[in-house]
């Protein structure tokens, strides 16, 4: 193919970072500035700060009462009270008032008997310096208040002022210029047309730079034009501390970044053994770091964390701390390659005593998997994969505390789960519902392995014609219950206006179908209906094409990438498609009896029963929810 | 005493908060506002956010290459290559380009052999939908992107834009008005005179409100004038969501706050069973929360955390997460009272496998103890105290990671420790030196109990006339080493110009002395010198008055609260006092051999040897540092 530079290196992550840091060592220097203390929250001190004055500045009364001369109180007792004269033997002091020579002690107001305006009686002698805060008790003039490279907290601001400091030298926040590039990208304010992509990465980078202590300027999108990009980057290098270019970092026909950077400076690394995130460029131009990040959002995010963040650290003086690492049991085998270090997004849940990590979608384009993830499981380059049940290290970005208060829900997907998660967040702050969608059967297997609290299921038992309970009875020996969910209509999701005039399963031979994944309740129902109609899967074009949720299959139909799919009414309605009813099914939650009393599960049951949820389900359409939240104990002997 | 309202209640903490929350329940409501997504980092969503469009919006090439029609590639193999014609059998696509009907698969550029401008050769058939990202793979239109009450992260901003969202409803940041009051307080820009106090609490509150997600307006200090304060607070209640008044929250002659708030609204709680922090006021006026906080900085901080933060949570929608709690062994007995819940600031260090908590100064005025602390140990109201060696729960505000990389140094104080801590922070980011000052002997006892890594000591053995090593030999059985520190001059710190004309120890009978605490090396030296001079402690006025550091005793002399103290030259110099040399001593570090190879200890030794430290010591004066960082193994048999 013409104009392609196919060659991308595969430098190991650590080596790439070492090369880059070495190149930046003498170029990248922290800058400093003096700012008012009241504006210094979260900033990093340049140097040690020493107190300019003591606190307290004088010997001060630590109580409301009277300041006395210890000598003159000697001998006072209940039997031999002493009378003291104002402004001669004592003065009245409030907390914080100075206690000056000859006064050397304070008697609390509670222990003083007032006789008249000028005289008081005391029943006990004072000991020297009682209830007096000595000068410098808190801060001694000249003492070090804060060390270098210290991140300023609210309490630090308090002591800086108390120590007489009003301005402070701090590390200047580095300024990063962010350039979104690409002819196909458009600003979010414009409605996208086919072939156009809403530019969102640069706004994510902007927020990342900000949260790591830098300042970010995001430039408007530049089309894939060699000279325009070169000029813009070159100009930015004169006034910014670093430049981020996105995307064009790979080796395609329109990937200019690497050529531009070779012209403007030196490219130290192009291509790293990391997945996702291989096509990254680490360069230096005009003495400043320039990093080219790939276009896929997950790749861009992971490369930012691995390569931009360490460069920001050199400029901000922040240490960012190590990641929050926990050990978890892996719920599903992960295969990787010796070609790269791989970052797999995982959901993490605590079930019983066990922390469980469940891998999410691994595609570089799956930004929502980052939103849904609780952390990363990192597979080293020298590792070919990890087996289910093995213990893995997870870099968490949710706190363990939150994870412990989360209902782990693994199984079949329904809109109900999103709505319930939302209502839980709103009505039970600090309690969460986390759901992973691997189909009814996959969920029950996960529950058997102790990796979930509840499993949303809609499994039709062909023999009895009953839903869910027969499967749970067969699969579990421990006491189980069923939390009733909803009845919902399943059917064929078809193009708006039903142009192929499909009437039911029998008509599917003439069209492009998209199926749900193996183990999904909807697929079980579809297979059952196929059998009833006397049809064979081989007669359906697209029977093997799989998508993981109702919304995903509906989207494929809406995008005219398929003519029909099996799914729920609500998904068809959400995508403004037509719907042909095939049958009604029961969507419930399998739960071990031992989890029923957990406060998190109780919150979930309350949400299922709430009229707020019912209203939202009625809006979506296709649901019956009279029984939602009812509990059936699967076997009589376990009933309460 | 006149005009005092001595009565302060002692409501238990939980009860006080429950009373207050109940009163605020129907008054305090979150407000909402719509803001652009790019400004939403760290804000809390009002409601669930649903995608307005799918991502990708179309079936898109996942690789650079050619889009083909699967049907037309059937049969291609190495033996039977197929020739494809441009714009008929294939089109060229870059990653992200649309793949529209009739095209239904992409072949990677690497697998395509170019023949000429219009034709290519392929050696393998394509499978349907290979290297195609289906429409909605990442985000399906109508799908829930974020739930309610979700704190927006950088990745969320990315998916919001990808999902077609450009504005978002978030919780409005509550506005707090902060009123510093008091006739004695001055702005930090003014140089304080005796009796005046630099106002610093309000700036700390301002930073706390900010870091908890609110907006703060700090008003200039108001003198203790009933009507002025009342008018200012009343006006603020019209435009702010809450008001904080500091101080005047107690029951002294000039503590107006409670009266003002009774007039403006209702005081629900005045006085809580918490230490420090008893004099707190929880009130409601004009339907808004008003909180009166005490003047001592530590009390104010603890009351803010216990009472202001929960009110802010009602307005911000933040959960703030639970505190970072760890279990540690207590190094020193703590006595408390059944009268209150007590917050004791602690240093926390990891020594071997053990996390150790060492209590710091407990005074309400000791703001520096908050700066130095790693967390709080909370003693419940129903507990009279905790014995040394017991396990306690510590609410940490430094990360465990940082604590694990900290050299725990317990013993005698010297300026050297502050300078070394500063240089470590600067040259070894992520490694820290934490020092607690309890004197040489106290330090050695802590080391014996396994609560420190190194102990700064300067203990004169009267029998041999040698420093340090005899003590270590006597006290330890395990292999020990001595890291050499400095030789330093000890002497009498006296008033500038030496007005009492003191010449040495013998002259101390005529003046007010201040001593160092029991177990301090300086006190051992002082006692030794007293004995040499044939004097008895009872002859010295102030022998029993103790302060914990060289700087603290120097400050007392500088404040004319004492005439003389024993200490080091550097402290006298820092406070611009006169100094009468008494002798030279050796200030070194005792360390178990097993800790010598820890990277943190190695960093400390490097710092001791550094010319930067030596320069700073020379500036301070009174030090010899030729041997600093040298290591002596205490017993020959342990020598390397």
From TrEMBL, chains A, B:
<keyword id="KW-0479">Metal-binding</keyword>
<keyword id="KW-0501">Molybdenum cofactor biosynthesis</keyword>
<comment type="similarity">
    <text>Belongs to the MoeA family.</text>
</comment>
<dbReference type="Pfam" id="PF00994">
    <property type="entry name" value="MoCF_biosynth"/>
</dbReference>
<dbReference type="InterPro" id="IPR024370">
    <property type="entry name" value="PBP_domain"/>
</dbReference>
<dbReference type="InterPro" id="IPR008284">
    <property type="entry name" value="MoCF_biosynth_CS"/>
</dbReference>
<dbReference type="InterPro" id="IPR038987">
    <property type="entry name" value="MoeA-like"/>
</dbReference>
<dbReference type="InterPro" id="IPR001453">
    <property type="entry name" value="MoaB/Mog_dom"/>
</dbReference>
<feature type="domain" description="MoaB/Mog">
    <location>
        <begin position="177"/>
        <end position="314"/>
    </location>
</feature>
<keyword id="KW-0460">Magnesium</keyword>
<dbReference type="InterPro" id="IPR005110">
    <property type="entry name" value="MoeA_linker/N"/>
</dbReference>
<dbReference type="InterPro" id="IPR036688">
    <property type="entry name" value="MoeA_C_domain_IV_sf"/>
</dbReference>
<dbReference type="Pfam" id="PF03454">
    <property type="entry name" value="MoeA_C"/>
</dbReference>
<dbReference type="Pfam" id="PF12727">
    <property type="entry name" value="PBP_like"/>
</dbReference>
<keyword id="KW-0500">Molybdenum</keyword>
<dbReference type="Pfam" id="PF03453">
    <property type="entry name" value="MoeA_N"/>
</dbReference>
<comment type="function">
    <text>May be involved in the biosynthesis of molybdopterin.</text>
</comment>
<keyword id="KW-0808">Transferase</keyword>
<dbReference type="InterPro" id="IPR036425">
    <property type="entry name" value="MoaB/Mog-like_dom_sf"/>
</dbReference>
<dbReference type="InterPro" id="IPR005111">
    <property type="entry name" value="MoeA_C_domain_IV"/>
</dbReference>
<comment type="function">
    <text>Catalyzes the insertion of molybdate into adenylated molybdopterin with the concomitant release of AMP.</text>
</comment>
<protein>
    <recommendedName>
        <fullName>Molybdopterin molybdenumtransferase</fullName>
        <ecNumber>2.10.1.1</ecNumber>
    </recommendedName>
</protein>
<comment type="pathway">
    <text>Cofactor biosynthesis; molybdopterin biosynthesis.</text>
</comment>
<dbReference type="InterPro" id="IPR036135">
    <property type="entry name" value="MoeA_linker/N_sf"/>
</dbReference>
């Amino acid at each position: 193919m013409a104009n392609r530079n196919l060659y991308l290196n595969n430098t190991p992550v650590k080596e790439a970072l070492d090369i880059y840091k070495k190149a930046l060592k003498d170029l990248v220097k922290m800058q400093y500035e003096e700012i008012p203390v009241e504006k210094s929250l979260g900033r990093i001190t340049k140097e040690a700060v020493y107190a300019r004055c003591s606190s307290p500045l004088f010997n001060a009364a630590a109580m409301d009462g009277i300041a006395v001369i210890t000598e003159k109180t000697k001998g006072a007792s209940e039997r031999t009270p002493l009378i003291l004269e104002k402004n001669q033997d004592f003065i009245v002091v409030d907390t914080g008032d100075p206690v000056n020579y000859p006064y050397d002690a304070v008697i609390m107001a509670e222990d003083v008997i007032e006789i008249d305006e000028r005289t008081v009686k005391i029943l006990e002698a004072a000991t020297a310096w009682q209830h007096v805060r000595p000068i410098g008790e808190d801060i001694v003039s000249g003492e070090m208040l804060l060390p270098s490279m210290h991140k300023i907290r609210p309490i630090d601001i308090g002591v800086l002022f108390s120590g007489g400091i009003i301005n402070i030298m701090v590390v200047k926040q580095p300024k990063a210029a962010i350039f979104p590039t690409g002819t196909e990208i458009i600003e979010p304010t414009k409605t996208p047309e086919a072939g156009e992509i809403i530019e969102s990465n640069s706004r994510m980078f902007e927020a990342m730079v900000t949260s790591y202590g830098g300042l970010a300027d995001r430039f408007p999108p530049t089309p894939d034009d060699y000279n325009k990009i070169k000029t813009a980057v070159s100009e930015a290098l004169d006034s910014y501390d670093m430049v981020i270019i996105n995307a064009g970092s790979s080796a395609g026909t329109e990937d200019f970044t690497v050529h531009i950077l070779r012209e403007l400076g030196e490219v130290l690394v192009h291509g790293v053994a990391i997945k996702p995130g291989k096509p990254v460029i680490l360069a230096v131009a005009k003495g400043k770091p320039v990093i080219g990040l790939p276009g896929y959002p997950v790749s861009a995010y992971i490369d930012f964390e691995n390569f931009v963040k360490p460069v920001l650290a050199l400029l901000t003086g922040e240490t960012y701390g190590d990641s929050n690492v926990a050990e978890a049991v892996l719920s599903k085998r992960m295969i990787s390659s010796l070609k790269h270090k791989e970052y797999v997004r995982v959901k993490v849940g605590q079930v019983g005593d066990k922390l469980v990590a469940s891998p999410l979608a691994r595609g570089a384009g799956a930004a929502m998997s980052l939103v849904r993830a609780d952390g990363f499981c990192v597979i080293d380059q020298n590792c070919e994969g990890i087996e289910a049940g093995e213990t893995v290290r997870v870099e968490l970005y949710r706190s363990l505390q939150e994870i412990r208060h989360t209902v782990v829900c693994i199984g079949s997907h329904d809109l109900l789960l999103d709505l319930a998660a939302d209502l839980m967040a709103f009505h039970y702050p600090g309690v969460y519902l986390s759901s992973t969608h691997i189909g009814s059967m996959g969920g029950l297997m996960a529950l058997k392995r102790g990796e979930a609290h509840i499993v949303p299921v809609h499994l039709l038992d062909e023999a009895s014609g009953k839903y869910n309970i027969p499967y749970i009875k067969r699969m579990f020996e421990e006491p189980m219950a069923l939390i009733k969910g909803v009845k919902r209509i399943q059917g064929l999701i078809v193009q708006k206006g039903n142009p192929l005039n499909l009437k039911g399963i029998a008509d599917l031979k003439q069209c492009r179908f998209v199926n749900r994944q193996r183990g999904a309740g909807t697929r079980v129902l579809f297979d059952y209906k196929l059998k009833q109609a006397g049809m064979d899967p081989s007669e359906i074009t697209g029977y093997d094409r799989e998508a993981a949720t109702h919304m995903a299959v509906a989207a494929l139909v809406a995008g005219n990438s398929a003519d029909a799919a099996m799914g729920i009414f609500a998904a068809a309605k959400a995508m403004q498609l037509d719907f042909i009813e095939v049958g009604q099914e029961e969507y419930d939650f399998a739960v071990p009896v031992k989890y029923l009393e957990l406060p998190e599960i109780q919150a979930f049951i309350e949400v299922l029963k709430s009229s707020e949820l019912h209203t939202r389900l009625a809006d979506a359409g296709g649901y019956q929810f009279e029984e939602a939240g009812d509990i059936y104990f699967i076997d009589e002997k376990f009933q309460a």
